[in-house]
Design brief:
By secondary structure, the protein is mostly beta strands. Helix content is 3%, strand content 35%. It has one helix and 21 strands. The strands form five sheets. Strands 2, 3, 4, 5 and 6 form a five-stranded antiparallel sheet that branches. A four-stranded antiparallel sheet has the order 1-21-20-19, with no helix packed on it. A four-stranded antiparallel sheet has the order 7-8-9-10, with no helix packed on it. It is globular. The chain binds 3,6-anhydro-alpha-L-galactopyranose. The site of 3,6-anhydro-alpha-L-galactopyranose (AAL) has 11 residues, from strand 7 and strand 11.
Length: 361
Amino acid sequence: MALSAAMRRFKAPDKNNPWFAKFKYSPITGLGYEKGVVRRDPSAILRIDGDYFIWYTRAAHPCPPVGFDRMTDTLPATPWDLADIWYATSADGHHWQERGPAVRRGGSGAYDERGVFTADVLQHDGRFYMVYQVAPSPNYRSTPESIAIAWADSPHGPWTKSQAPILEPDPSGIVDERLDREDCIEPGAWDSLQVHDPALIFREGKFWLYYKGEGIGFHHMESKWGVAIADSPFGPYERSPFNPVTNSGHEVVVWGYAGGVAGLVNRCGPEKNTIQYAADGIHFEVMAQLVVPPQAAGPYRVDEKDNTEPLARFRWGLCHVIPQSSHLIKQGNDPLGLAGIDEPWDFLVRWELDEQRRTYI
Ligand code: AAL
């Protein structure tokens, strides 16, 4: 077969690479497209007493987002503005029942007054720890966003929130909150503007909090990941001196495997759309390059005893779909029903590995 140099680069390494994956997408019931409601950024999925549990950002808005210049106390700037964290359960991973709010945004003057969103939940020693993003009010273009934690004895709650965020942006850099990060007075560190998308992993007796950082003076799509480590889930968290631990990546998707940490690095940076692995949780290497990976994937986290291959904790889950960029996952006969959607209400779909299509060629 005649092969271009580009295709030759992929053929040999990816054919039998256990880290390589292609994906297929299908609609779900209960958390699909709904006018007036945003559902996005799902957590990893846990199985508890025979049911699957998922937590996600949910907002009911009077209109599609109006942007930072027109937002008010009730009009959202972005799809994830004025949001709370809700949860849903399912017996089969296809049909979901929305169960209500898990963690709501705080009252007037609270550190999380404008929004709580982008959750991940770790089950550890019989307890549930939820890490998530928080935004104060007012929330302008360049307002700092932080990471907080809540805990519960049952996946149904009630959840107790931390008194204060557990991780805040690096204090370097100066920007007027109302202006764009690129129009700053003084640039800061890679995570000086906002810390986002937390995911908590327990390894080597400590809590490893992976997060996405955005920096004052940096471009919008120049995000990277860092990690901060603590003895207790509530902190204090200490940033790794090696941060950032990736040079790319948007929503953080990480899973423990073989003593190390694997991750789906997507959307941003020179190594976007790759699966990476760090045996020590810090020094990530590219293991496979992907096409059309799920956006903000929440993978089903199998138990440690079933965690026997690289993608065991990345076989299926939910992800969000942003209707405006729906061409990304438009497939064949439009099984997700995207063609009829003309308004930007983000929603959740199911993704899974496409075992039939394991190579590029
Ligand atoms: C997401 C995440 C964070 C960002 C925004 C909402 O996909 O990266 O949550 O703040 O976009």
